[in-house]
Specification:
- The chain is of the alpha/beta class.
- The chain has two domains: 2-29 and 123-207, no CATH class; 34-119, no CATH class.
- It contains seven helices and six strands, in the order ααββαββββαααα.
- The protein starts with a helix and ends in a 6-residue tail after the last helix.
- The model has no long low-confidence stretch (mean pLDDT 89).
């Protein structure tokens, strides 16, 4: 009974991961909603009188995180994916102006000129990038369906499901914490290819006739 419940639990969780990847255009929609924070250190005398000066310490935690990451970045830029996560203090636009996309940040006497741009592209551009993850979801769904019918090996299902889960833990919903977007696509394509090779290899071995001496 315990084994049956465990089997059902693995099948259910794997199916959920598979469905989430099949719906990548929706579950990874944050990818196309980009707020870009660009900072440049300046002297106080260089600040335009029209600029709104914001104290770094007075910003909300999400705003401090976004601005701080931009300050620490080698190129002075940081992208926040997903409009729901854009800090409310700022205005996001393609053409900024003082107080609406262009600000001054005072970080304990060090001043920065901050520009908050909105970026992204047409949805179909991101749909193409999401193809490896959809293919992975199809593979996981097929494995899960087979396991639900004939009790396929759960170790394989668990391993593939964990790989699928990693896409969500490393992807746009959490602002690509390990890979940049294109490296994330490469990771997805590589993992999908490895799973295909593994499955083809297992099938070849299982169908090969035994050899005798």
């Amino acid at each position: 009974m315990e084994r049956s419940l465990g089997h059902r639990g693995v099948i259910l969780l794997s199916l959920l991961v598979a469905l989430s990847l099949l719906g990548a255009p929706f579950t990874m929609a944050d990818w196309g909603e980009q707020a870009v924070f660009s900072v440049e250190p300046v002297e106080a005398a260089e600040l335009d009188d029209e600029l709104l000066v914001l104290e770094y310490e007075s910003l909300s935690e999400p705003a401090q995180d976004a601005v701080g990451r931009a300050i620490d970045a080698p190129d002075g830029r940081h992208t926040v994916y997903g409009q729901a996560d854009w800090p409310d203090e700022f205005f996001y636009t393609y053409d900024g102006e003082p107080g609406r996309g262009v600000y001054a940040i005072d970080d304990d006497g060090q001043y920065y000129r901050l520009v908050t741009d909105v970026s992204g592209g047409f949805p179909f551009m991101y749909w193409l990038l999401e193809v490896p993850f959809v293919i992975y979801g199809l593979i996981l769904a097929a494995l899960t369906s087979r396991a639900s019918r004939d009790g396929g090996r759960l170790r394989l299902i668990i391993g593939v499901a964990l790989g699928g889960l990693s896409f969500h833990l490393l992807g746009p919903a959490v602002d690509f914490p390990v890979f940049d977007p294109m490296a994330f696509v490469a990771y997805g394509a590589t993992l999908t290819t490895l799973v295909v090779v593994l499955l083809v290899g297992r099938r070849f071995v299982s169908e090969s006739p035994p050899t005798g001496n």
